[in-house]
Specification:
Elements lengths: L6 E2 L4 E3 L2 E10 L10 H4 L4 E10 L2 H24 L6 H18 L5 E12 L2 H17 L3 E4 L4 H7 L12 E4 H7 L16 E6 L5 E4 L11 E4 L6 H14 L3 E6 L5 H6 L3 E4 L20 H16 L4 H17 L16 H9 L8 H10 L1 H4 L19 E5 L8 H16 L8 E6 L2 H4 L2 H13 L5 E7 L2 H6 L1 H8 L3 E4 L7 H8 L3 H9 L4 E6 L2 E7 L3 H7 L3 H11 L1
Parallel strand pairs: 10-15, 10-16, 11-13, 11-14, 12-13, 14-15
Antiparallel strand pairs: 1-2, 2-3, 3-5, 3-6, 4-5, 5-7, 8-9, 8-18, 16-17, 17-18
Helix pairs in contact: 2-3, 9-10, 9-14, 10-11, 10-12, 11-12, 14-16, 16-18
């Protein structure tokens, strides 16, 4: 195979089937904002843009600034001595130099040598000339001057290759703020200042830059998010992508998975996979947490919520009986309000049934105890006891925990959700293990359709921020989410809302609940699969989810692709 022939022209480089011209940025705007150079990066033609940065040592920067100020001052004095009019540009340059020298001396900023080059590629010389003119016009609109690298086409082309080599060496001195504003990761649509937990969500559909978002950024009210879409719009794909990239940043993640779709991801990254309802996936609601509120009396509060979800609403007598029976069940295992007893083996649901049947409290409540014991019978000694018949066997301590509800019967889904949410919430409140956490609930309508579950989820959404935890609710049943006061409250407590394509019957409710404009309504009504509107207060960005081939293999739910991947594995 022969190497391609390259011909050097005064202002372009010709090779087999393509032509290239390198343009040098020679003039910059006086003031810049974050992401000001995004138009250059989103140019529709084929353009390679390279930025070369070289730090300028502090002593050298101070000497250069002194010389620069001396030249400007000398020029001003010469103009004054000859009676010339004051040059506004020179005056502005002198003021900028003085301000910059002061900030460098105080250590508030640093100087860099910045060189920006853009190599335009085209299949013909005519198209190359046309693309260069369009690029120059676009650059002029943001007050950027471009000049061709005349007689240096070879050096210009090499300077825009991913080699980190600046062979043109036509840089300009700028400060830290100007360099930061040039970076394409600081889009104007979203606030800057993201921390170490920021992740790339995808490509900005308008500017072509990257949408980088940090759920745990201090400027947000909380780390909660809702992902809403119609079936097949890509909501689970996007949730998995954010989850996977959050793991890279050190976030501990947990997923409540109703359809066992996250299992491949968990196995690939070495996470824990729990199948609730099977012997290896049992969670005992009587376990005492490893936090300050370990007393059995505090567990009685959750057990009230759980039993209500299991058997329905309780009467006043049944509520009082349940409270006493829970403490009796703990006492039967030797666990009392004395902290010295809290390390003992906790009771199980069958012990609660025994305490109700062997009621030793007030005689007038014996009837309520027998009634409640009978209502709990299926869960203590009947067909539904497998979920509670024994100690905890599930492991929830890894960097990623995926809890599958697929093996639970439909009538136990809400109970299973409460069990796992309680276990994850106890872990998040552990003061000995402070770290950012994500709890993702896929198809969250399963919990919201039950009033008891909706109330528990609402309380969790309100308090997650205090424990460095973000709650993600993913659902396709937008109407169910927004149909109840609690559902709307859960959505309102999410600082981040990601809206993919919505079903026509849900458009009005979505637009009203999230205060979408007419243009944003069109976006969520016609968005392509994988495209979404990210809304966080007054900040908006439309993006397309981007995944690498390796990430795509782990998160895709397309049946045809899964069948192909399984065939490759065999």
């Amino acid at each position: 195979m022969t190497a391609p022939e390259i011909r050097l022209r005064p202002r372009r480089l010709d090779s087999d089937g393509w032509f290239a011209r390198t343009m040098v940025v020679t003039g910059y705007p006086h003031q810049v904002r974050a992401g000001w150079a995004d138009p250059l990066l989103s140019f529709p033609g084929r353009v390679d843009v390279a930025c070369h940065l070289t730090p300028v040592p502090g002593p050298l920067a101070a000497r250069r600034l002194r010389r620069r100020r001396a030249r400007l001052e000398s020029a001003w004095r010469t103009d004054t001595a000859h009676g010339r009019l004051e040059d506004p540009q020179r005056t502005a340059a002198a003021e900028d130099a003085a301000d910059l020298a002061e900030r460098v001396a105080l250590g508030e900023t640093r100087l860099f040598r910045l060189a920006v080059y853009a190599t335009v590629h085209a299949p013909t010389p005519e198209e190359l000339d046309a693309d260069v003119r369009r690029l120059a016009a676009l650059a002029g609109s943001i007050l950027v001057d471009l000049s061709p690298a005349t007689y240096r086409a070879w050096e210009g082309w090499r300077s825009t290759l991913p080699l980190g080599t600046d062979t043109l060496r036509t840089g300009r001195t700028v400060d830290t703020e100007a360099v930061a504003a040039l970076m394409p990761f600081a889009g104007a649509e979203l606030p800057t200042g993201a921390g170490r937990t920021a992740v790339v969500h995808g490509e900005n559909a308008h500017s072509g830059g990257l949408v980088v978002w940090d759920r745990f950024h201090g400027g947000l009210d909380n780390g909660n998010a809702v992902i809403l879409a119609r079936s097949g719009a890509g909501k689970s794909y996007l949730a998995k992508l954010e989850l996977l990239r959050s793991l890279y940043t050190g976030v501990q993640a947990s997923v409540i998975d109703p359809a066992d779709e996250y299992g491949r991801l968990a196995e690939a990254v070495g996470g824990d996979r729990v199948r609730l309802g099977l012997p290896g996936g049992r969670l005992n609601p009587f376990d005492l947490p490893a936090a300050e509120d370990r007393a059995p009396t505090t567990r009685a509060l959750f057990l009230h919520t759980l039993v209500t979800a299991m058997v329905g609403a309780l009467t006043a007598d049944e509520g009082a009986v349940l409270d006493r029976a829970v403490l009796d069940a703990y006492a039967g295992r030797g666990i009392t309000p004395d902290p010295a007893t809290w390390q003992r083996t906790p009771p199980v649901m069958a012990d609660l049934g025994t305490a109700l049947r062997d009621w030793t409290g007030p005689a007038e409540q014996a009837g309520a105890a027998r009634t409640l014991a009978a209502r709990l019978g299926p869960f203590t000694h009947g067909s539904r006891r497998d979920l509670f018949d024994g100690p905890t066997t599930a492991r929830l301590t890894g960097h990623l925990t995926v809890v599958s509800l697929r093996h639970l019967p439909e009538e136990l889904k809400t109970v299973g959700l409460l069990l796992i949410l309680d276990a994850l919430w106890r872990r998040a409140r552990d003061p000995a293990d402070r770290r950012p956490r994500l709890i993702t609930i896929d198809e969250g309508w399963t919990l919201l359709r039950d009033p008891v579950g909706a109330r528990y989820l609402f309380d969790l959404a309100k308090n997650a921020r205090r424990h460095w935890t973000g709650l993600t609710l993913v659902t396709q049943d937008v109407a169910d989410l927004l149909a109840t006061d609690l559902g709307r409250a859960v959505a309102a407590n999410a600082a981040t809302q990601i809206l993919l394509r919505q079903a026509p019957q849900n458009l009005d409710a979505v637009c009203e609940s999230f205060h979408l404009s007419r243009g944003e309504r069109r976006i969520v009504a016609t968005a392509e699969r994988g495209s979404a509107l990210l809304a966080a207060g007054r900040h908006r960005a439309v993006f397309r989810a981007l995944a690498s081939p390796v990430e795509h293999r782990l998160i895709t739910t397309d049946p045809a692709e899964l069948a192909h991947l399984e065939g490759e594995d065999r």
